[in-house]
Protein backbone atom coordinates (compact mmCIF):
# COMPACT_ATOMS: atom_id res chain seq x y z
CA UNK A 1 0.00 0.00 0.00
CA UNK A 2 1.37 3.52 -0.83
CA UNK A 3 2.02 6.04 1.93
CA UNK A 4 -1.03 7.78 3.40
CA UNK A 5 -1.80 11.14 1.81
CA UNK A 6 -0.68 14.13 3.98
CA UNK A 7 -4.20 15.60 3.93
CA UNK A 8 -5.63 12.34 5.27
CA UNK A 9 -3.05 12.28 8.06
CA UNK A 10 -3.96 15.87 8.90
CA UNK A 11 -7.65 14.96 9.17
CA UNK A 12 -6.77 11.96 11.32
CA UNK A 13 -4.76 14.18 13.67
CA UNK A 14 -7.67 16.60 13.95
CA UNK A 15 -10.66 14.28 14.20
CA UNK A 16 -9.36 10.92 15.46
CA UNK A 17 -10.87 7.81 13.83
CA UNK A 18 -10.66 8.80 10.17
CA UNK A 19 -8.82 5.99 8.35
CA UNK A 20 -10.34 2.75 7.14
CA UNK A 21 -8.97 -0.58 8.39
CA UNK A 22 -6.39 -0.85 5.60
CA UNK A 23 -5.13 2.66 6.23
CA UNK A 24 -4.91 2.06 9.97
CA UNK A 25 -2.88 -1.11 9.44
CA UNK A 26 -0.49 0.80 7.19
CA UNK A 27 -0.13 3.56 9.78
CA UNK A 28 0.71 1.01 12.47
CA UNK A 29 3.40 -0.63 10.34
CA UNK A 30 4.94 2.34 8.46
CA UNK A 31 7.60 4.32 10.32
CA UNK A 32 7.42 7.27 7.91
CA UNK A 33 3.66 7.71 8.17
CA UNK A 34 3.74 7.16 11.95
CA UNK A 35 6.38 9.88 12.36
CA UNK A 36 4.36 12.27 10.19
CA UNK A 37 1.20 11.56 12.20
CA UNK A 38 3.05 12.12 15.49
CA UNK A 39 4.26 15.51 14.22
CA UNK A 40 0.72 16.44 13.21
CA UNK A 41 -0.63 15.50 16.63
CA UNK A 42 1.94 17.74 18.30
CA UNK A 43 0.89 20.57 16.00
CA UNK A 44 -2.77 20.11 16.92
CA UNK A 45 -1.93 19.92 20.63
CA UNK A 46 0.00 23.18 20.29
CA UNK A 47 -3.29 24.91 19.45
CA UNK A 48 -4.65 24.17 22.92
CA UNK A 49 -5.14 27.19 25.18
CA UNK A 50 -3.20 25.47 27.98
CA UNK A 51 -0.23 23.69 26.35
CA UNK A 52 1.73 21.06 28.26
CA UNK A 53 4.91 22.89 29.31
CA UNK A 54 6.67 19.61 30.14
CA UNK A 55 7.25 19.09 26.40
CA UNK A 56 9.40 22.23 26.13
CA UNK A 57 13.19 21.99 25.93
CA UNK A 58 15.82 24.38 27.25
CA UNK A 59 18.23 25.34 24.43
CA UNK A 60 21.81 24.17 24.81
CA UNK A 61 24.68 26.54 25.69
CA UNK A 62 25.80 26.64 22.06
CA UNK A 63 22.66 28.68 21.23
CA UNK A 64 23.60 31.50 23.60
CA UNK A 65 27.24 31.29 22.49
CA UNK A 66 26.15 31.88 18.90
CA UNK A 67 23.94 34.83 19.90
CA UNK A 68 26.73 36.31 22.02
CA UNK A 69 29.23 35.98 19.18
CA UNK A 70 26.97 37.39 16.45
CA UNK A 71 25.94 40.42 18.53
CA UNK A 72 29.48 41.12 19.76
CA UNK A 73 28.43 41.26 23.42
CA UNK A 74 30.89 41.91 26.23
CA UNK A 75 32.61 39.22 28.31
CA UNK A 76 30.35 40.13 31.24
CA UNK A 77 27.46 38.38 29.50
CA UNK A 78 29.32 35.35 28.18
CA UNK A 79 27.53 32.95 30.58
CA UNK A 80 24.31 31.38 29.29
CA UNK A 81 21.54 33.19 31.26
CA UNK A 82 19.22 30.18 31.15
CA UNK A 83 21.84 27.81 32.55
CA UNK A 84 22.88 30.36 35.18
CA UNK A 85 19.26 30.80 36.28
CA UNK A 86 18.83 27.03 36.52
CA UNK A 87 21.99 26.69 38.56
CA UNK A 88 20.88 29.47 40.93
CA UNK A 89 17.59 27.73 41.62
CA UNK A 90 19.42 24.50 42.40
CA UNK A 91 21.88 26.31 44.63
CA UNK A 92 19.10 27.90 46.67
CA UNK A 93 17.55 24.52 47.35
CA UNK A 94 20.90 23.00 48.32
CA UNK A 95 21.74 25.93 50.59
CA UNK A 96 18.47 25.58 52.46
CA UNK A 97 19.16 21.91 53.13
CA UNK A 98 22.84 22.10 54.17
CA UNK A 99 23.49 25.74 54.98
CA UNK A 100 26.81 25.60 53.06
CA UNK A 101 28.19 26.03 49.55
CA UNK A 102 25.22 28.15 48.50
CA UNK A 103 27.33 30.43 46.37
CA UNK A 104 28.94 27.52 44.52
CA UNK A 105 25.65 25.84 43.78
CA UNK A 106 24.05 29.14 42.77
CA UNK A 107 26.50 29.78 39.91
CA UNK A 108 27.30 27.69 36.86
CA UNK A 109 30.50 28.60 35.06
CA UNK A 110 30.67 28.08 31.32
CA UNK A 111 32.61 24.94 30.32
CA UNK A 112 36.31 25.33 29.62
CA UNK A 113 37.94 24.57 26.29
CA UNK A 114 37.58 20.94 25.32
CA UNK A 115 35.11 20.22 28.14
CA UNK A 116 31.60 18.98 27.38
CA UNK A 117 28.80 21.20 28.71
CA UNK A 118 27.19 20.06 31.94
CA UNK A 119 23.56 18.93 31.60
CA UNK A 120 20.96 21.50 32.73
CA UNK A 121 19.64 20.99 36.27
CA UNK A 122 16.01 20.11 37.03
CA UNK A 123 15.07 19.93 33.35
CA UNK A 124 13.02 16.92 32.32
CA UNK A 125 14.61 14.86 29.58
CA UNK A 126 12.41 14.68 26.50
CA UNK A 127 12.77 13.37 22.98
CA UNK A 128 14.01 15.73 20.34
CA UNK A 129 11.26 16.75 18.01
CA UNK A 130 11.58 16.04 14.30
CA UNK A 131 11.38 18.96 11.91
CA UNK A 132 7.65 18.36 11.45
CA UNK A 133 6.84 22.06 11.34
CA UNK A 134 8.43 22.26 7.91
CA UNK A 135 6.16 19.62 6.49
CA UNK A 136 3.11 20.46 4.47
CA UNK A 137 0.68 18.33 6.46
CA UNK A 138 1.65 19.92 9.78
CA UNK A 139 0.86 23.41 8.55
CA UNK A 140 -2.44 22.13 7.19
CA UNK A 141 -3.36 20.70 10.59
CA UNK A 142 -2.51 23.94 12.38
CA UNK A 143 -4.48 26.04 9.90
CA UNK A 144 -7.47 23.69 10.02
CA UNK A 145 -7.46 23.56 13.83
CA UNK A 146 -7.39 27.37 14.03
CA UNK A 147 -10.18 27.66 11.49
CA UNK A 148 -12.32 25.20 13.44
CA UNK A 149 -11.87 27.17 16.67
CA UNK A 150 -12.85 30.44 14.96
CA UNK A 151 -15.76 28.90 13.05
CA UNK A 152 -17.05 27.15 16.16
CA UNK A 153 -17.15 30.38 18.14
CA UNK A 154 -18.83 32.24 15.29
CA UNK A 155 -21.54 29.63 14.82
CA UNK A 156 -22.22 29.55 18.57
CA UNK A 157 -22.93 33.28 18.53
CA UNK A 158 -25.05 33.12 15.39
CA UNK A 159 -27.28 30.37 16.74
CA UNK A 160 -28.36 32.39 19.77
CA UNK A 161 -32.11 33.15 19.60
CA UNK A 162 -32.30 31.68 16.08
CA UNK A 163 -35.69 31.41 14.34
CA UNK A 164 -36.61 28.21 12.41
CA UNK A 165 -37.44 28.95 8.77
CA UNK A 166 -37.75 25.48 7.21
CA UNK A 167 -37.35 21.84 8.14
CA UNK A 168 -36.77 18.53 6.36
CA UNK A 169 -37.21 14.99 7.61
CA UNK A 170 -34.24 12.98 6.38
CA UNK A 171 -34.98 9.42 5.27
CA UNK A 172 -32.45 6.63 4.56
CA UNK A 173 -31.48 5.74 1.01
CA UNK A 174 -30.19 2.51 -0.55
CA UNK A 175 -28.82 0.13 2.09
CA UNK A 176 -28.70 2.65 4.93
CA UNK A 177 -30.91 2.84 8.02
CA UNK A 178 -30.03 6.23 9.54
CA UNK A 179 -32.75 8.87 9.89
CA UNK A 180 -32.63 12.50 10.91
CA UNK A 181 -33.69 16.07 10.36
CA UNK A 182 -32.41 19.30 8.83
CA UNK A 183 -33.52 22.73 10.06
CA UNK A 184 -32.83 26.16 8.56
CA UNK A 185 -32.27 28.69 11.37
CA UNK A 186 -32.17 32.46 10.95
CA UNK A 187 -30.12 34.47 13.46
CA UNK A 188 -30.90 37.95 14.72
CA UNK A 189 -28.44 39.45 12.22
CA UNK A 190 -30.24 37.79 9.28
CA UNK A 191 -27.67 35.08 8.63
CA UNK A 192 -28.91 31.53 8.07
CA UNK A 193 -27.54 28.16 9.12
CA UNK A 194 -28.54 24.59 8.34
CA UNK A 195 -28.60 22.36 11.40
CA UNK A 196 -28.39 18.64 10.56
CA UNK A 197 -29.00 15.82 13.04
CA UNK A 198 -28.77 12.08 12.26
CA UNK A 199 -29.56 9.04 14.36
CA UNK A 200 -26.08 7.63 13.61
CA UNK A 201 -23.03 7.96 11.36
CA UNK A 202 -23.06 5.22 8.70
CA UNK A 203 -20.33 6.59 6.43
CA UNK A 204 -17.56 4.24 5.35
CA UNK A 205 -15.46 7.28 4.42
CA UNK A 206 -16.75 10.62 5.68
CA UNK A 207 -20.10 12.44 5.65
CA UNK A 208 -20.63 15.52 3.48
CA UNK A 209 -23.75 17.71 3.56
CA UNK A 210 -25.20 18.99 0.28
CA UNK A 211 -28.08 21.07 -1.04
CA UNK A 212 -29.48 19.77 -4.33
CA UNK A 213 -31.45 21.75 -6.90
CA UNK A 214 -34.95 20.89 -8.05
CA UNK A 215 -33.48 19.58 -11.32
CA UNK A 216 -31.40 17.04 -9.33
CA UNK A 217 -28.30 18.23 -11.23
CA UNK A 218 -27.09 21.33 -9.41
CA UNK A 219 -25.37 20.74 -6.07
CA UNK A 220 -23.91 22.93 -3.34
CA UNK A 221 -21.54 21.40 -0.80
CA UNK A 222 -22.04 22.84 2.69
CA UNK A 223 -19.16 20.95 4.30
CA UNK A 224 -18.05 17.83 6.13
CA UNK A 225 -20.02 16.47 9.09
CA UNK A 226 -17.65 14.65 11.44
CA UNK A 227 -20.28 13.10 13.74
CA UNK A 228 -24.02 12.55 13.76
CA UNK A 229 -24.78 16.29 13.80
CA UNK A 230 -23.46 19.57 12.47
CA UNK A 231 -24.31 23.22 11.73
CA UNK A 232 -23.47 24.80 8.38
CA UNK A 233 -23.69 28.48 7.32
CA UNK A 234 -25.76 29.16 4.21
CA UNK A 235 -24.70 31.66 1.52
CA UNK A 236 -26.53 34.97 1.96
CA UNK A 237 -27.68 35.02 -1.68
CA UNK A 238 -28.88 31.40 -1.74
CA UNK A 239 -32.54 30.89 -2.66
CA UNK A 240 -33.66 27.74 -0.88
CA UNK A 241 -36.60 27.41 -3.27
CA UNK A 242 -34.01 26.55 -5.93
CA UNK A 243 -32.10 24.13 -3.66
CA UNK A 244 -34.70 22.56 -1.36
CA UNK A 245 -33.20 19.05 -1.10
CA UNK A 246 -30.86 18.24 1.80
CA UNK A 247 -28.52 15.30 1.17
CA UNK A 248 -25.87 13.66 3.36
CA UNK A 249 -23.45 11.57 1.31
CA UNK A 250 -20.81 8.94 2.07
CA UNK A 251 -17.59 10.23 0.51
CA UNK A 252 -14.49 8.05 -0.02
CA UNK A 253 -10.99 9.36 0.70
CA UNK A 254 -10.14 9.64 -3.00
CA UNK A 255 -9.45 13.37 -3.29
CA UNK A 256 -12.46 13.89 -5.59
CA UNK A 257 -14.50 16.93 -4.42
CA UNK A 258 -17.62 15.83 -6.31
CA UNK A 259 -20.59 13.90 -4.95
CA UNK A 260 -19.85 10.19 -4.64
CA UNK A 261 -23.39 9.25 -5.78
CA UNK A 262 -23.76 7.34 -2.49
CA UNK A 263 -26.35 9.11 -0.32
CA UNK A 264 -27.04 8.08 3.27
CA UNK A 265 -30.15 10.22 3.89
CA UNK A 266 -32.14 12.79 1.93
CA UNK A 267 -35.15 15.04 2.45
CA UNK A 268 -36.89 18.18 1.14
CA UNK A 269 -37.16 21.43 3.08
CA UNK A 270 -40.59 22.89 3.75
CA UNK A 271 -41.71 25.91 5.75
TrEMBL record:
It comes from the Bacteria. GO terms for cellular component: plasma membrane. This is Anti-sigma factor. The chain crosses the membrane at residues 137-158. Keywords: Membrane, Transmembrane, Transmembrane helix. Residues 84-105, 260-271 have a biased composition (Low complexity). Residues 110-120 have a biased composition (Pro residues). Residues 139-258 form the Anti-sigma K factor RskA C-terminal domain. Residues 82-125, 249-271 are annotated as: Disordered. InterPro entries: RskA_C (IPR018764). It holds the Pfam family RskA_C. The lineage of its organism: Bacteria, Bacillati, Actinomycetota, Actinomycetes, Micrococcales.
Amino acid sequence: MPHIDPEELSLLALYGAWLDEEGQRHLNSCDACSAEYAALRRAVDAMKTTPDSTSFEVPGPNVWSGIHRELGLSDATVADPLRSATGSATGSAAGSATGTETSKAGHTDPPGPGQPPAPPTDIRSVKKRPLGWQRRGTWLAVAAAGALVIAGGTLWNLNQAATPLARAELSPLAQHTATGSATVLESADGSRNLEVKLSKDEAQGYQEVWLIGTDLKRLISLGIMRSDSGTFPLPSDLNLDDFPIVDVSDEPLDGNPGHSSVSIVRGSLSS
